[in-house]
Design a protein that fits this description.
Length: 211
């Protein structure tokens, strides 16, 4: 008679934890289905919440941060600069508290180094034993499967998270809006991090100057 003793908790941990790191799905603000438009003089703006998925969406919720896509159309004959003479507020007039692009990335990125904790699975063994018809143990084999699985799971998740974070950072940098010019007659797309736990209506405000 042959019996197999598997460290069930360790194997289940591998199955669950092995897919912990998640890929990053690019947002591509130009392609989003924006909702209602608000206008301030010759400036028209649309926005979109709920852009992230999987690990990034979970981080967004836990950190009290909202990543927002903006579509800003400048129909005037002059340029404006986001964050200077063109500001973002809530529809009720209350100010928006921004996170910088670097802060947004640091708060929402996956912790790739964390996945090396899976090396703790390295001692896991696959044990087989054989007994005769009287129940007397004859042979026992211990196969050190953890030496393959521990490093394998660690490296797989590490590089998966690292590559996802690189893509996330690249898109944040590409659509950086702070101090960016909104040229006359042009439409500009961007991504901004807002420190908030609510999905509140946004609007653009222009600071007029006599100069």
């Amino acid at each position: 008679m042959k019996s197999i003793n598997i460290k069930i908790l360790a194997i289940l941990s591998i199955l669950v934890l092995g897919s912990c790191a998640s890929r990053y799905s690019e947002i591509e603000p130009e392609s989003l289905p924006y909702g209602s438009m608000n206008k301030n003089k010759d400036i028209a703006m649309q926005f979109q919440y709920r852009l992230l998925s999987k690990k990034y969406a979970s981080k967004e919720k836990n950190k009290g941060l909202k990543l927002v896509a903006l579509k800003i159309l400048n129909n005037s004959d002059k340029s404006y600069f986001f964050g200077e003479d063109l500001r973002l507020t809530y529809n009720d007039g209350s100010p928006v508290v921004f996170a910088t692009t670097d802060q947004t990335y640091d708060m929402l990125k996956q912790k790739s180094g964390f996945y090396f904790l899976y090396l703790l699975l390295s001692p896991t063994k696959f044990t087989t034993s054989r007994s005769d018809q009287y129940g007397n143990m004859q042979t026992t084999n211990n196969i050190p499967i953890g030496l393959l699985i521990g490093p394998g799971i660690s490296l797989l998740n590490f590089f998966k998270a690292k590559n996802a974070n690189n893509s996330f950072k690249a898109e944040l940098d590409k659509y950086e809006l702070f101090n960016k010019e909104i040229p006359a007659g042009k439409t500009v797309y961007g991504l901004v991090g807002i420190k908030s736990t609510q999905f509140k209506e946004l609007k653009a405000e222009i600071e007029f100057s006599d100069n």
